Amino acid sequence: MDTLLTAEAKAKAFTMGAHLVGVGNIERWDKCPTLMSPKGIMPTAKSVLVCGIHHTDGMIEMGGEVSPHDQGTYSYQMLMNYHLDVMSYTMARFFEDAGYRAVPISASNIWRYRPYKDLEATFAPDMSHIYASVAAGLTELGYSGLAMSPEYGPRNRFVSIITDAPLEATPLMPGGTMCDDCGMCIKHCPTDAIDKEVEGKVAIEIEGNKYWRADKNLWRCAWAEHFGLSVDADIPDEVTEESILKSVEEIGMRGGTMGCCLKFCLPKAKRSWNKDYSTAPIRKKAVTPAQDTPERGVQERLLADAITWGADTVLVESADDWKARGVDLSSLLPDVQSVVMVAVDEPPVNPKSDAVPRSTFSFAMSYLGHKCAFYIAHGLEQLGYSGAPFTRGGTGTEPARSAAQAVNEYMEATCEGRKGYRCFVVTSAKLDPIRRDATFDALPERLDMTVVAKKTALEGGADVVGITSAGRLQAITEDIRPVFEDELILSARETGKRWITSSAEVTEQARQVFGPADYLDSAKSVIVLGIRMPAQTVEATITSPAEAIGPYAFSTYQSRRQLRLAALGLIKKLKGWGVNAAATYDLCGTGSFAANPRGPQPNAFTNRFAAVAAGLGTLTKGGFVRNPQFGANMRYLAIVVDAELSEDALADLTGLRTECDGGCDRCITHCTVDAFKDTVSIDVDGTELAFKPVEQVRCDWALRYGLVPEEGVLYTGSKSNAPIPDKVTAEALAEGMTLQDTILKVRPCVAEKCMLACPYTRPQDD
Questions:
Q1: What would the 3-class secondary structure string for 295-313 be?
Q2: All structural domains of the chain
Q3: Separate counts of helices (H) and strands (E) for the chain
Q4: What does the pLDDT look like over 724-739, one tens digit per residue?
Q5: How far apart are CA 616 and CA 589, in angstroms?
Q6: pLDDT tens digits, one per residue of 477-503
Q7: Taking the model in full, what pTM does it have?
Q8: Nearest CA to 514 among 352, 284, 691?
Q9: Quick one: the chain helix, strand, coil %, rounded to 5?
């Protein structure tokens, strides 16, 4: 076992904000079904690194007080998922950089709602993070099935990274030491999921240790959590997929809930009560603050972290001052002393036309704001204070709703018309009132803007950065215009009733081709950022014994999210240097989208010409980019700027495509919808590159709308199957959309089979 690598991996995870980190040797999953085991996903795996984040106690103790549907501060759980995803993806690249392989798993990865092949489990993830936390020595199981740690009980969320790195395993907990069968989870479950339709107890056994839980009907558990049905409705004695859908049809959806099994559960040693504070048990803190006000260094560190992470304004005020204004914040946190407000501003939007495909930063702004507020609350909680972070939406019941609304309105006024994301923290710590705004000075003359811009992008998470002059890319744009301009594009908008029906409204449009000058009048350069998809994720897609498509879907959306995070940090610096910038997911507009559980994602064809022009690779026969270091497993984002930056040399455009020019046609022959058209050639600074464009409406049938089972949705257990017609029309697409699986269409997982067939993407056996 490599103890140094293990320590380095744990240190990296702790630095990113993990509160618990453990390792399980792969043998601890020997009794798991192959279709949902780490070894099924990665047969060569040796270890699983598991990282956990603790909900702040305020999130649990203040959330769901009036109704489980009124989640309040508990809704910050979504941020925990966002951050665990960043952690998982970053740790996988950490292992790759250390010379090993890794497959990152999404924090929320339930793609198979129904049994699949010989896997009888419902709501089956690619692998269970609850099981993984037990196998990594971090937790035991409670009766409800939640993972309970000695430090926080079930107030944790976990994520897993599968790797062939020989990590040192964490000793297992023995089992039976966390749950004292207090029955609180049974008493407070609003759907009786831990009382009715329970077939006794079952145990998982790992290295001779047994971990027991209730053998419950997960469809009952999913009544409100997944399907949004009201917990106050009449719930059938037998809850199945059919009875759930019948109820959705008859009474409609109310919305998700806070998990009451989580809210009311704590290990006996950590359990205390104060019914005036919360209906839930109060977790005993490890420390008690010696004074009302944290030391100055603590406050400065929290502010500094927020600014460096991306907050544009951090404002601290006292609860007493708010009370003097007529706003009592104690409905948000009974022992409140201070409120910390965080603003993350939207970067300047400079495109000349709304028609250009520009990147939006809603996720990046939300993630960064949430991260700042969450870790401010957490940092104070670790010192013994209480803290509850709130989203812009606040809470849904009075008087908390009015208090949260007042804070939000005050923040908007404070930001003086700036757009962006706002959130806040209420805490029992008596903090010093202060306002901190992020500002940037002009770049010192001794520094080269090109060098600093690249360094900023790489430090922000990009794997590669390249720069092209606007002129070079504009020339390519004019060359490709006859190939793509005015091509038919069909856009389908879902109009069916969620979970019940499938239908769509389809509109036609003509494709437009864009160049740098369409984004900025004075465009001079284009910065292209690239982030890789982990090699093992791509190699294992569908072909592994687990037949997993989820890790590929995760990498598809997470690479895009982290590209936007890197771009947002860079654009803010550029703005400070007096540079105008416009970010785009597909500068030339010649790509499309791929269906994904997190919404349609720009596909592998987007920003290809910008990447080639910036020296990041060549164009393959199939029309996607091969990067010299990471092959075709890349996603790109382009930023058009009005600064003159040093242009990178082109890659070896012909040497990087010897397989293509040697007669390889795998991408063409493996296309599930016969979308590739005749070969065309373009000129890139005097070098001729030949490739085959796709007929977009055919490609979109498979990828954008997930209507071809073999393209990925088949492996989730989806029943979707809409054979593609000879001619794809708006009417045909609308008809095809009616054939989607009404449940699994909500979280579609697809793989780009043409790209997966490429030897520059992964090794090929046939």
A1: CHHHHHHHHHHHHHHCCCE
A2: 3-283 (no CATH), 296-437 (3.40.109), 449-756 (no CATH)
A3: 23, 29
A4: 999 999 999 999 999 9
A5: 18
A6: 999 999 999 999 999 999 999 999 999
A7: 0.97
A8: 352
A9: 35, 20, 45
